[in-house]
Amino acid sequence: MPYQYLNVETKGPVGVIALDRPDALNALCTPLIKELEAALAAFDADDAVGAVVLTGGERAFAAGADIKEMAGKTYADCVRENFITDGWEAASHLRKPLIAAVAGYALGGGCELAMMADFIIAAETAKFGQPEITIGVIPGAGGTQRLARAVGKAKAMDMVLTGRTIDAHEAERIGLAARVVPADALLDEALAAAARIAGMGRLAALAAKAAVNAAFETTLAEGLRFERQSFHALFSTADQKEGMAAFAEKRKPAFTGR
Ligand code: DAK
Questions:
Q1: DSSP string computed for 4-73
Q2: Helices (DSSP H) in 135-237: which residue ranges?
Q3: Longest Cα separation, the chain
Q4: Residue 230 has what pLDDT?
Q5: What pTM was computed for the model?
Q6: For the residues 215-225, what does the mean pLDDT come to?
Q7: Is the per-residue pLDDT at 170 higher than 90?
Q8: What is the average pLDDT across 230-244?
Q9: Contact 65 CB / ligand 1 (< 6 Å)
Q10: 1 pLDDT more than 80
Q11: Which of the residues are catalytic?
Q12: Nearest CA to ligand 1 atom 56
């Protein structure tokens, strides 16, 4: 499918989606979000893809939702049209592991989109922020919730109330980014991580993602129960037999995703 605002390709077992609206610093207009939803769904359904990388450009991962598109809306418009809700959660619903590779600005909806990924690899040039308060609103795509869970109340309040932007090293220090890498190594690092994940047993990777996500959605007791059941269930897979046999035989496992 041809995309206007995305570059989409596969590199081996990795699906790569690059936001491509450079004139507007990848501002996330409705048509872009619709395309993103379609591209993510296609990779989720593609058996040859084991993990997905979502990235932007050098100057911006995404500078937020499209302010010019939003500016004239009334409360009634937003409610009646369910404004910028459809499609926005697609990244958080992906079953396969998703890495956000962030260079430049990841602001507002851009930061929120990156946080929907399973982890963020940041270029040294990355700048994260939730500046919505500076334009008279608050984060609307999870910024008050996912950010607070990722970095805790103090840092989340600091960012959401002041709207200040943090750099890549602060993002890593506070737990928003998993790694910081030189800008010219960003895509290679993200692709290598995604390929490594895609090379694991597919069912184990899906289970691992679901189990970690459960930690943010359930009580500890329920999360531990979920983890235990998933762990036990993996003993019904060929990949568990293969992985453990390969370990004992001192060879690399040949996982089949079964
Ligand atoms: N929207 C529209 N256009 C944008 C944009 C944005 N968010 N960010 C940048 N642009 C455009 C600029 O208007 C400019 O376009 P032209 O004037 O050339 O036509 C072009 O990109 C280059 O930007 P600048 O000239 O401003 O470049 P600078 O280097 O001077 O500044 C900047 C870069 C990133 C600091 C600045 O552009 C900026 O402050 N941008 C806005 C950042 C921001 O406030 N972001 C938060 C937006 S609110 C929801 C889902 C999502 C959301 C809410 C609800 N639901 C599911 C309900 C999200 C809300 C938001 O993200």
A1: SSEEEEEETTEEEEEE--GGGTT-B-HHHHHHHHHHHHHHHH-TT--EEEEE--SSEEE--B-HHHHTT-
A2: 146-151, 153-162, 168-173, 186-198, 202-214, 220-233
A3: 65
A4: 98
A5: 0.97
A6: 96
A7: yes
A8: 98
A9: yes
A10: no
A11: 65, 109, 112, 132
A12: 85
C-beta of 85 in contact with ligand 1 (< 6 A): yes
When the pLDDT of each residue in the chain is averaged and rounded to a whole number, the result is 97
The CA-atom distances, in angstroms, between 241 and each of 200, 202, 233, 255 are: 13, 14, 12, 10
Measured CA to CA, the distance from residue 5 to residue 196 in angstroms comes to 28
Tokens 């895509």 correspond to 187
Residue 20 CA to ligand 1 center (angstroms) comes to 14
State how far the Cα of 131 lies from the Cα of 109, in Å rounded to an integer.
Answer: 10
Q: Which atom of ligand 1 is nearest to the CA of 163?
A: 44
- Across residues 195-216, what is the average pLDDT? 97
- Of 94, 52, 49, the closest CA to residue 191 belongs to 52
Ligand 1 center to 252 CA (angstroms): 47
Q: What is the pLDDT of residues 39-84, one digit of tens each?
A: 999 999 999 999 999 999 999 999 999 999 999 999 999 999 888 8
* Helix or strand run (H / E) with residue 80: helix 75-81
Residue 239 CA to ligand 1 center (angstroms) comes to 45
Q: Which residue has the tokens 């450079």?
A: 22
Give me the pLDDT at residue 86, please: 82
Using the predicted structure, report yes or no on whether residue 6 has a pLDDT greater than 90: yes
Q: Does residue 104 line the site of ligand 1, with CB under 6 A? A: no
Q: If you measure from the C-alpha of residue 46 to the centroid of ligand 1, how many angstroms do you get, rounded to a whole number?
A: 33
